[in-house]
Each structure stands twice: as structure tokens, then as C-alpha cells.
Amino acid sequence: MTTLLTINGATRRFGGLTAVDGVSTTVAKGELVGVIGPNGAGKTTLFNLISGFTPLSAGKVHFKGRRIDGQKPFRIARLGIGRTFQNLRIFPNMSVFDNVSVGAAGMLGVNAAGAVFGGKARSEAISRRAWAALEQVGLQGLAGELAANISYGRRKYLEIARALAMEPELIILDEPAAGLNDTETRELAAFIKRLHGDGMTVLLVEHDMGLVMGICERVVVLASGRKIADAAPEVVRKDAAVLEAYLGVEE
Amino acid sequence: MALLEVRDLHVSMGVQEILHGIDIDLGEGEIVAMLGANGVGKTTLMRALSGIYRVRGGTITLAGEDITNAPSHTIVARGLCQAPEGRQIFATMSVRENLVLGGGPQGLARIDEVLPLFPILGERMGQAAGSLSGGEQQMLCIARALMRSPRVLLLDEPSLGLAPKLVKLIFDLVARIREQGVSILIVEQNARGALRVADRAAVMEGGRVVLAGPAAELANDPRIVEAYLGGHVAG
Amino acid sequence: MAGTSPAMTLESVDLEDDWHEFSGFFGPNLPVAMDYYLQQLAIGLSLGMVYALMAIGFTLIFGVLNVVNFAHGEVYTIGAFTGLVVISAFAPPLIVVLLLVVAVGALAGVGLERIAFKPFRRFSDEASLKSRAMREATLMSSLAVSIVVREAVEIGFGSQFQTVPLDRLLNSPISLGPITIVSGDVIIFVVAALMLGGLQYVLKRTNVGLSIRAVSSNPLGAKYVGINTDRTIIWTFAVGSMMGAAAGILVGLYYGAIFPSMGFIPGIKAFVAMVMGGLSSIPGAVICALILGFSESIATIFVPSVWADMVAYGFLIVTLIFFPRGIFGGARDRV
Amino acid sequence: MSDRLRPLLVVAAVLVLVLGVVPAVLGAFDRSYLYQVANLALIFVLLAASMHLVTGVAGLLQLGHAAFYGVGAYTAALLTTEAGLSFGWTLPLAGLGAAFVAVLVALPTMRLVSIYFAVATLGIGQMLYLVMLNWVPVTKGPNGILVTSGLTLFGYDLSRPASAYFVVAVVTLASLWVIHRLSHSYYGNALRSLREDDQCADAMGLDTVRLKIESFAVSGFFAGIAGALWAHTAGYISPADFSFPQSILILAMVVVGGLGSLPGAVIGALVLILLPEVLRPVGDFRNIIVGGVLFFSILLMPKGIIGEVSALDLVRRQLGGAWRGEGTKAGSEVGWR
Amino acid sequence: QQPVVKIGYQLPLTGNTAQYGQDFKNAAEIALAKFNASGRPFKVEIVFEDSRSDAKEGIAIARKFVDDKEIVGVLGDFTSGVSMASAQVYKSAGMPQLSQTASHPDYAKISEWQFRNITTQAQEGPYNADWMVDQGFKKIAVIAEQTDWGQTVVSNFADEVKKKGGEVVFSEFFNRGLADFRPIITKIAREKPDAIYTGFFYEDGAQFLKQMKQLGLTIPVYSTSAAYNQKLIELAGADAEGMHLTATFLPSNPAPQVQEFVAAWKEKTGQAEPGQFPAQAYDAVNIMLAALEKAWPEPTREKVRDALAATKDFPGVTGDTTFDAHREPAKKLTKAVVKGGQFVAVAD
Ligand SMILES: Nc1ncnc2c1ncn2[C@@H]1O[C@H](COP(=O)(O)OP(=O)(O)OP(=O)(O)O)[C@@H](O)[C@H]1O
Ligand SMILES: Nc1ncnc2c1ncn2[C@@H]1O[C@H](COP(=O)(O)OP(=O)(O)OP(=O)(O)O)[C@@H](O)[C@H]1O
Ligand SMILES: CC(C)C[C@H](N)C(=O)O
Ligand SMILES: [Mg+2]
Ligand SMILES: [Mg+2]
Q1: At the top level of its lineage, which domain of life is listed (chain B) (predicted)?
Q2: Would the N or C end of chain E have less CB density within 10 A of its end CB?
Q3: Among the listed ranges A233-247, D12-26, D315-329, which one has the minimum average pLDDT value?
């Protein structure tokens, strides 16, 4: 198994607060890793460190053997990291299809000269990718709809589709199941599993234990910015520290 | 008569009607859960109740007074508070200021009752609300609604984005608040949790209430189990 | 200075005498160069105060609605013309003029809000709230109102400078050691300081201020906590426009220049100062207005005055390069 | 109608209208005034369209557009008077000159967002205006420049309003075609995503800074082209033609027509140039009326006469710009071809 | 029914410079009424069009005038910029254009169709330079507005001063409508000039004079005829006292045409005495009318042009106007000073 992502002593401070504190872990190609932890544990911050939205205070991040910390988000994205956001960030005044096309366009590259004089090859490639991503999440029926007009649950899939249209090697999902009901969460779980089955490497933050424990191969637990566990779900589930910090005593 | 009475409520967005005649009763000290898939109009209902959306038809009565299409500030003044979807906190203001605003004329009078529920907020009092983590923002949103000692509390997906420990805490909290005589209307995707604490529940589909009844009954209704509880009967 | 100008006819001009008076102006003791810079600084300060006076109301209104009010300059003009009409009608003392102007300014602000801003709040769907087109629509509606007002004033009064009774001008010189200022500088300083102090107190210390800041931060959220957002917005417009109108008459009397497009240049400068300051910070806007005033007068020392604005705008660009969200602006929302 | 044919027909219709019907009708009146107004309208159509790209599509509120128009006009005028170049040369060079200046000023300001960017462009516009006004040795300052050669192409003098109309119309149409390709394509989608949420676009692998600079430069280029057209058709330029109120006028065109909508920008420009001319008989009140019309149009159609959504739909259907997803039912057109 | 001859007048009737255009219109209407009442064999109609001092409007108006076959001559525009842009149209279409104020050095050079009846700084500058140097001022500061006209104010004046052995110790421009002159005034003061020569209109002039006095500066100020307007004194009050300037028009001039114009003006507008610019417009209209008369009975554009070109010693309110071979006027200049709230002539 080849390592795709290596996080080495990642640290991020905000003033006096250390949101992420010396976290190290690796993600191998094809893995499905869950990240859990109490609210404010630093999960989103960790994702922002990986995708370049927040600079590291200390530590290193490597992707495919290349150091990526300190790089601009779009460069990191182009290396093959797609992401979604905890607070849904779609492009509300664009159609569903156009939203997704941006993911494809970002990876395939667009420029002014190409847009004016270029042949159809590039735009068809973008179209096909975007369409494939939409089909993957089952939104093709809403392709022409304005994104602001579709429901919350579908926006979640839209955001995922947009990341998929990038055809990334690693996809980071920040709380994809938030706001979905149990049935929808199951569908999502199945969807992520399928994605994983197709060879995608997934890094997933989620508070829905059913989802995390059900599909993840490995779970990283953060609390107060520190990694307190990093193991298979069955192990983590019984870890005293994790129970104490995060899960609470289940009935 | 119920504390909050909704009769034949119609709400439209532009030309499109979203709620086609909703009836709900919320009794004194009662908890009612609203279930329904994404996009059926639960949030639209909640917004209409708080006076954010205009009502095209039907009536809303709070403690015998007609509040249909009353401005949102008078509705809040009459004791109907909401922790809305999307949090709607004041991102550029500090956590403390958010809470003061939640308290309205009472200001921070109830801070000592609210803060212990969410100790982490106590540590973040001076921080800009927008820089909080997702879950912290959700806590702030709920805490803010509690600052005013509401008579009717509307919670739109309160457990969204909260860690499991806190989800449990939220539902316990809902039960506790009811003890103080507050009536609660709660919209939840976590149907299991909501049905456990609720007295009654209603299921919405396509802008209508399609099923209503005592929560315990609904929790065992095969249709509910199939659609919202992932096929397993709630424990 | 002699009352009847000695330079009135050539015959009476004694060059030697002139020399004498001239050096007296800069004071006999300080080196001339020093006086010169001090005088330029004093002028820069008073220029800056003039911009600040306008920037305060402008920033207040922007802070609440997050839209540029292109008609603020016209409120300023309305203030000046109201004052002029009042003065020529029954010549009351300045304070009475100010009160009347402020009242008219409040009316203008409320009217403006009703006409140019409120109608656009009827769109509450997400696509509209997040749409650039809707944002720029209010900008345009205020621009359209400003065009109509300016043209109307022009038709009513003509576009020339209005004649201000000379004894009402706020420009009797006051000598402070080597430098000279005028009475208007003092009045403008006091008024601006009062406005700034008052607003800071209201915004930071009172519930009204808290509501205003809440509406500016998240108007929808403000509804959920029971704030009467419409009323808050109207009040803000009323207060901001009162300040704009007061600025108009004060600056009008200060320069003795009242004409229909008088709000244009101070409007631009106030806009620039507000943004340099970080949009929602009134002290920030005031400080940046002072910086703009200073940079204009100081620039004149070193370059021809036609280039002075170049320095002021250069300052703007440099500021924004180093502080992309203004000097006192907050950070961007976290991802 | 066959889907292949329709776009061709639409293009043909536009060409016939602009290059056939309009000149024929104007010619029938035998009034050079009408041509003059038409030329002016076309120049402002081009200006509005170029601002549409940066303000409507990429969402960067541009408050200094007239300055780039001016840079183009000055480049053309100076190349004509100082270097003796004819219109055939000055036209592209004016565009390039304006684009060059646009890139220069874009470099330091592209990190700015929203109103901060708007004010930066306002400042830059004013600075460029001050340069035109005060850099007397080069720009002749307030004296302006008498442009000695009018519209000449391949040695033919095309300065008469009627022939100038064709030159202006062809240049404007060609430019509109380019702007159409840019805004109605995946490139346009990328720019729109900047407008909607630039951080998110960044996460999609878009080099947001480069895109902003690029769109700014292209927009500057076409403003420069418009400037060259103005310089050669007017014959005399001075800084006043490129001052801040002109920027606001162009912005008003784009907003009234529909921010984000290219057909809207075109219509907005036509309305705001033609309306004051039509209202001439009204006398002193005409500008009040223009202001009133502006106000009511915004009030009733805040998203513009042709809003972005309907404009995109129109282009997709009528101009055959749409790419059809494999699984879609016939007629549901989505992406860009 | 008398035949009617039409002329066009393009001028700013709205916008920032509307006050000037409105004045021109009043002056033109006075001149026209008098002409039409005087029993000539034809009547004249003036078509006024509002250019807003905007070149793009000016050009459209020019086209409109050119299209109207009945229009045989055009007056205006106000600013040189708009006049010159419009002049391109008149040049190519062959329409005589007479501007009452355009003072750009190249304006009349555009073609044989452009005329102006305002004195240029080529005449006024040296005249004032001589005047000032003769008064014994050696070190002179010069400021002027940053317009084409202001440029000529400075250059023509400075050349002559140097020739006469004087020294221009300071020379700067300012943007029109500058609110605060104090930074420049302070800067001027540092150069310690003997006198200041200024190129401004009355609004800027009033601001300058007031602020100069505020700063306690008492250096003699000289200016051009452009500052000649009663409003200058209204706006600046006592601070205007002692300002010297040249004029071609003095309302106090006892010449009958002047007194007639002043009286008609007061009656029509209800304002005080007319300033320099309305007088310019009044003369321009009359010169045009005289040219029409000369061209009658067949007033074609060519004939009107030729008639204009032949204008010699036309007795206007701004003095006698003769167009030289370059269609430039030469006028007699008068020296004036503000004294007791009035412009009064200064004996040479
Ligand atoms: N820009 C910032 N400024 C100050 N504090 C910040 C900032 N960003 C994050 N924090 C703090 O860092 C901590 C970690 O935040 P983060 O969003 O990573 O948590 P999280 O694990 O994603 O939580 P949740 O599950 O609630 O989303 C929080 O306590 C938050 O308040
Ligand atoms: N402003 C709006 N404009 C147009 N349509 C809207 C608007 N708001 C809501 N809708 C539509 O109304 C329907 C109901 O939306 P609502 O947000 O009430 O659903 P919900 O039940 O709360 O769903 P969720 O579980 O996703 O929060 C959806 O189909 C949505 O697309
Ligand atoms: C500046 C203008 C208004 C007038 C000046 N005489 C000119 O020729 O332009
Ligand atoms: Mg998070
Ligand atoms: Mg909802």
C-alpha cells in the first residue's frame, strides 16, 4: 500500500488557543479514514491545514510524497485533493450543472484564449466529467435547476459531486451526514462505500457514529486538538479515553 | 385551547406554494416533534411561525392571540423564540454579545442558567462567533434562544453538527426545559432522539402533514420506522 | 491684517511693508520652514476633519446595510441648501440653523430609506440574498435617487454657487502661534468629535447600538432575536443622514461654497476613508479621513497640487495592499 | 427548427439587423445624427459588455472602468498623432495598451474582495484620470488631443458617419462575440464561481488570482478598443471624457440591463444612451426623467431587464451554446458547448 | 409671413456648468428678441440644445445641427473640449461655428469654419504681464486652473514676464472646483512673490481670495477677464477688494449698446449685472446675426462663414470685434480693479 497523505506534527494556533496540536498520521491510497472528536476538537481546522486554507503553525503535510503545506489551496486541489465544507458552500446563483462543472474546469484548466478559440474537445471533456459526477450522486434530473432552489439534502450531494468532478485522488468530506435523517444517512453511507469501493481514498469527519463505525477502516480521534486514538473502529469504540471525551456512555 | 395553534397554513415562495395547509397544536408544556425528509417544508413552517416568511392563508394563534403575519419582533416579544436552521448567529460579534442579544431586554439575566449547559461557550465568551467551530456555533444558537426564557421554543434541527455526547445532552435538555413549562416544537432529522423526548409527533411530506399522533405510537409505526428510523424499531 | 486691504490699489502698495507683514505671518521666532510645515499640517487636519464629518454618517449607514448609499452626498447637499434657505429666510443663530438642518436631514434619510432601500428587502429568498445583482441594485437605486435630487436642486436653485451671507461664514481667522486656523475649524472639530464620541457611546454601550450592530452583522439573525430590524434601519438612516446634513451646512458655511454637486467630492473621499478604515469602524473612517486630508496637504508641499489626489489615492492602494480589509477591518470569515 | 440551424439563424439575424436593417432604416432618414447616436450607442454597448465580464460575471465591482476606456483612447490618439499610425494599427494597440495597464494595476489589488476591490478600482480610475489630466508632456493634459486621422482602413477614409457606423458595428460585434464566448463557456462558469464564493472556487483548483487578473485584462482590452473607436470617430479627446461619472454611467448600464447578463448589458447601454437623446425635446427636465426611469426600472426589475438566469437560458437555447447531458430528456440543456 | 433663418446653439443647460449655459441662453434670447423686433426682412430662430458639457452629447448635437438643412450657423459650445469635439463635425460638414468662450489655442485652427469672439491668452497674457511688470513687480507667482485655458494663461503670461525681465517664482495649476486652496496659498507664500497672477473663474476665484485673506496673506492679486463676474464680489465680499484684472466688458461702460444690454439683462433675469461670459454670448449671437444679415437673401453656410470671416469692427458690448485671418478676435482690453464692491476701470 502506498502512502498518499502524511501529516507530521501538524499544529495550528489561534492566539492563545491551540486548535490542532501536533497531530501526525498517514493515509494510504484507497483507505477510508474517519476523523471524530468533540465539537471544537480541531477536525475542521485539520482539514483546512491539509487543503491549504489555514497555514500551519508547525509541522508538515505531504501528499504523494510532495510537501504541500504552505501551498495555495488551488495548487493543493490540483494535486488531487477534493473537499467539501462543513457549512455547505455551493454557488447559489448558478445551476446545479454549472456548479459541478467548476470542479471539472478547475482540474482540466480553463483560460481565456481556450474559451474563445479553443475547439470543443476541452469543453466536452469538462461536460462529460461534470455529468458523470452528477450521475454518480444521482442529481442529473436537477441539472438545470438553480442551486439555491434545491433542498438541503441535495445540496450535500451537489457539493460532493462538485468535488468528484475534480476526479481527485483523495476526497475530504466534512460532516456530510449532518442534517440528513437516518434513511438518508444510510444512503450516504452506501454511497461513500461505493466510492471507496471504486478506489477512492476518503477522509471523513462525522459525528454520526453509525456512519463512521459502519464504513471506516480506521478512525482517528481528536480531542482538544490532540490525537487521542488512531485505530480500527472496533478498537476506538472501546477506548476509554474516547468514550470519556467523545462518545459518552451509550445506552 | 393549545398554546400555539396553527390552522390551515399556506406559505408560498414566489409563485410556488410550499406549505399547503398545515394544522398543528402545541399544548402548554408539550413537546411536539416534526419529522420529514429534506425539502418537505419543515423549515418553511418554522420561519412562518417566527414571522420571517409571509403567510398566504390560514392563522397562527399564540396563547389566544392572533400572530398571523405579525412582525417577527412582536412574536419574539410574546415569548416565541427559535433556534433557527443555519444558526443565524452574529458572526462578527463576540459570543457574549450574541448571548446579550438573545436575552433581549433581559440582557444577560439568565446567563447563569444557560452557560452551564454549554461550558465550552463559557471559555469562548470573547471570541468572534464566526470563528467558532460548527458545533460550537450550533450550541451558541440554542443558548441564544434560551436566553429569553421563552414560552414557546422552536428548535430547527438542534442536534445538527453536534458530537454524540452533546446530541444526547440536547435531548435531555429539551426534556428539562419542558419541565419549566416551556412548550417546544422541534424539527429533527434524528427522529429517534426526537421521538424519545416528544409527547406527540407529526410527519410532513410535500408541504402537508401526512401523519400525526402520540410520539410513542409513531415510533412503532412501520411507515415511520421504514422511512425515518432506518428500518429498525427504536430502542 | 488691515481691514481695508492695503493692496487695493497699486499706489498704496508699499513693497517693503508687505514684506514685513508677510514674515509676521509666519512668526518672527521660528524658522520659516518649520512654520510652513506646521501650517500645512494644520490645513491637512482641517481638510481631514471636513472629510471625516461626512464619513461618519456614511459609515454608519453602510455599516448597517452593507450597501453603498450613493445618495449620501445629496443628503449633504440638501443639508447645505436647507441651511441656506433658513438663513436667508429668518437669519437665526447657527445652533438653530443646525437643528433645523438636522431635522430635514432626518426626514431626507427616512425618505431615502423608504424609497431606495426598503423596497429591495422584499426579496428574502436565498438566491436573491446572495446575489450580486440584488446588492448592486440597491446601489443603483440610491444612485438614481441621487441623480433626481441633484437635478431637482439644480433646476430649483441653478447650478452656480449660492451666495451665502458673508457674516455667516465660519472663516474668521484665529492665530495659534505660527499657524492660522479659522473659526470653522474649531466648530467642525467640536461637531465631529461630538458625533464620533456620541456614536461610539451609542454603538458600544447601549442596547440600541447593539441592535444596530446585530442588524449589520446578520439581519435575519436579528429578526430571530426579536429586533425590529425595519425600525433599526430607519433610525440608522435618520441618524446617519442627520449627520450628513449637518456636515453639509457646516462645510457649506466653512467654505462658503453651496452648489448642487457639492456632495460629490467629499462623498468620494468619505467612501474611500470608510473603506480604508475597514467599513464598519467609525473611528477607523475618521482616522483615514484625517490621513486623506493630511496626505493632500502634505503632498502639496512636495508635488504640484494637481497631483495631491494622486498621493491620497496612492495611500488608499498601499493601505489596501497591506490591510486588504482596511486598517481596522476584521478578518475574513473562517472556512 | 433543427437545433443546428437555429444558432446559425440567430447569428445571421443579428448580423442582418445590425449591418443591414439598422443602417437601411437610418439611411432612409438621411440624418447623420442618427448614425452618430448609433455609433455612440455601439461604443457604449462595447463598454458595458466589457464591464459585464468583470463586474457581472466575475463579480468584481469595477468603479474605474472609464479610465481604461481613456487609456485606450489616449493610446490610439497618441499613436496616431505622434507615430502616424492609422486606425488599423491603433485599434489593436489601444486594446493591448489598456490591457497592459489593467494587468499592472490588477497585480497589487487582486487579493481584495467585494467593496475593498471596488474602492481600489475607484482609486485606480481616479489616478489614471489624474495622469491623463496632469501628465502634460505626454497626454497634453487638459488640452486634449486632436486626432488627426479619422477612421481609415487600407487607405480608405471611413470617417463619414454612415461608413463609420459599419466600422464601429463590425468591431463591436466581433468584440461581443469574443465576450460572449468568454462568458458563455466553462471559462465563464469559472469566473461566476469567483463571484459566488472565491474561497470555494480556490478549493476546486481554480487559480482565482490569475482568473481575476485575466478577466480584468480582457475587460480592459475591450474598454481600450472602445476608446480607440471613440478617439477616431470623435476626432478630439480630453480627460473629461473618461472621468468617474462615465464609469458610473457604464455601471448603471450593466446593472439596469441585468448584472451577469450579456444581452442585458447590451440593452442597458442602448437604453441609457438612447433615452437621453429621445428625451431631448423635454429640455431641462430630461435628466430627472432619466434618473426616474433608472429608479423605476431597478425597483421593478432589480435583477435587470434581462436577468442573468434568463439570459443564460436564452443563450443556451437560441445560440446553441448548450451541451446536452447524455441522460437528459430532450430540450433540457445544461452545460456549455 | 416672414422667412425664417435658423441657427443652432449648443450649450450646457444642465449639469455642473449649467449656470453658464443658462446665462448664455438668456443673453442669446435678449439679442434675438431685439433682432427679430427690428423689422429685418427675415426672422431668426435659435435652436438650443443641451450638451451638459459632455463631448459625446456635443458631437451628437453637432450632427443634429448639420443634418438640419435650415441651420446655417452654430454658436457654442461652452468648454473648449466640447467645442473642439463638435468642431470635427462642423469641419467635415462645412458649418460655421462661433464659440463665445472656447479658448483652447488650437480651436480656431481646426478649420476655416471655426470662429471665436473671446480674447485668447495670446493677447491677454502679455497684456497683463506688461501691466504687472510695469507696476514694478519682479517676482510673480502664477496659478491657473488645470484646463486647456489655464495652460495658456500660464504659458502666455510667463513668456512675456521673462521677456520683460521679471521672474516667475512659482507656477502651478489646480483642479477646477478645488475646495481648499490653502495648501497652495501657503506654498505660494513661502516663495514670497511680489504679486500673484491667477487664471480662474469666479467660483474658484472667490474661494482663493477668501482663503488667502484667512491666512493673512496680502499680496496683490491679478487675474484675467474670466474672473470678471459680479458674483465674485458677492461670494468673496471684502476679500475681493483690490483684485486687479483685465476686462473687455464693463457694465458701467456708458456705450449705448452696453447700457441697453445691461438693462435688458436685469429685466429679463432679475439678476444683478451680467458678467463677462453672458456678454461674450450676447456679442457672439449678434455677430452671427450680423453675418446672417450680410449673407441675406441667400444665407447658405458658406456665405455665413464668409460673412463671419469678414466681421470687422463689430461694435459689441465687449468691445469691437474683428476676426483676423485665423478667425481669432482682437479686442481692446480694459484694466479694472475691485473697489468698494464694484469693478471699476483703472486708468492706464
Ligand atoms: N479563525 C479562528 N480563530 C479563533 N479560533 C478558531 C478559529 N478557527 C477555529 N478556532 C477554534 O479552534 C477550535 C477548533 O475548531 P474546529 O472547527 O477545527 O473544530 P471541529 O473539530 O471541526 O468542531 P466541530 O465538530 O464543532 O465542527 C474551536 O474551538 C474554534 O473555536
Ligand atoms: N426561498 C425559497 N425560494 C424557493 N424555494 C424555496 C425557498 N425556501 C424553500 N424553498 C423550497 O421549499 C421546499 C421546502 O424547504 P424547507 O427548507 O422548508 O425544507 P425542510 O423540510 O426544512 O428541509 P431540510 O430538512 O433540508 O431542512 C424545498 O423544496 C425548497 O426548495
Ligand atoms: C474652461 C472652460 C469652461 C472655458 C474656457 N474658456 C475654455 O475654453 O474651455
Ligand atoms: Mg468542524
Ligand atoms: Mg430545514
Answers
A1: Bacteria
A2: N
A3: D315-329
Q: Are B138 and B87 in contact (CB under 8 A)?
A: yes
What is the pLDDT at residue B98? Answer: 95
D218 CB neighbours in chain A (<8 A) are 112
Does residue D278 belong to any structural domain of this protein?
A: yes
In a domain, C333, yes or no: no
DSSP code string of E214-258: HTT----EEE-GGG--HHHHHHHGGGGTT-EEEES--TT---HHH
Q: What is the CATH number of the domain that holds D303?
A: 1.10.3470
In a domain, C200, yes or no: yes
In CATH terms, the superfamily for domain A3-247 is P-loop containing nucleotide triphosphate hydrolases (3.40.50.300)
Q: Is the pLDDT of residue C25 over 50?
A: no
* Nearest CA distance, A131 vs chain D (angstrom): 6
Give the percent of chain B with pLDDT over 70: 97
User: Which residues in chain D have their CB less than 8 angstroms from residue C131's CB?
Assistant: 303
Residue C50 has pLDDT above 70, yes or no: yes
Neighbours of chain E (3+ CB pairs under 8 A): C, D
Q: Do D61 and C123 touch (CB under 8 A)?
A: no
Helix axis angle for C282-302 and E182-191, nearest 10°, is 30
Whether D and B touch, i.e. at least 3 CB pairs below 8 A, reads as: no
By 3-state DSSP, what share of chain D in percent is helix, strand and coil, each rounded to 5?
A: 75, 5, 20
Query: What is the Å distance from ligand 5's center to B11 Cα?
Result: 15
Mean pLDDT value across chain D:
90
Q: Whose CA is nearest to atom 29 of ligand 2?
A: B39
ipTM summary value: 0.91
Distance B132 CA to ligand 1 centre (A): 5
Nearest to B101, CA basis, from C216, C211, C199, C229: C211
The domain of D153 spans 5-318
- Count the domains in chain D: 1
Q: Is D237 inside any structural domain?
A: yes
pLDDT of residue D2: 55
Secondary structure (3-state) at E216: coil
Strands E244-247 and A226-231 turn out to be unpaired
Q: How many residues does chain A have?
A: 251
Looking at the DSSP bridge assignments, the partners of residue E143 are E172, E198
Residue D1 is predicted with a pLDDT of 47
Residues with CB under 6 A from ligand 1: A 14, 17, 19, 37, 39-45, 86; B 124, 127, 131-136; C 334
Alpha carbon of residue D167 to chain centroid: 16
Q: What is the mean pLDDT of residues D195-200?
A: 91
Q: Which residues of chain E have pLDDT under 70?
A: 348
Total of domains in chain C? 1
- Residue B1: predicted pLDDT: 67
For chain A, 251 residues long, the average pLDDT of each consecutive 10-residue run is 90 92 94 93 94 94 93 94 91 93 89 81 88 90 88 89 94 91 87 93 92 92 92 88 74 37
Contacting residues of B for A178, CB less than 8 Å apart: 134, 160-161
Ligand nearest to the CA of E11: 3
Q: How far apart are CA B147 and CA B82, in angstroms?
A: 11
> What span, in angstroms and rounded, lies between the C-alpha atoms of C77 and C71?
10
Do A148 and C126 lie within an 8 Å CB cutoff? yes
Could you tell me which of D247, D107, E207, D223 has the C-alpha nearest to residue C268?
A: D247
Residue ranges with CB less than 5 Å from ion ligand 5: B 43, 85
Domain ranges of chain A: 3-247
Query: Which residues is E339 bridged to in the sheet?
Result: E342
Residue B233 pLDDT level (bands cut at 50, 70, 90) = very low
Q: D261, D315, D332: which is closest to D51 by C-alpha?
A: D261
At D284 the pLDDT is 86
Assess whether the C-beta atom of B18 lies below 6 angstroms from ligand 2. Answer: yes
**Residue C30: inside a domain, yes or no?**
no
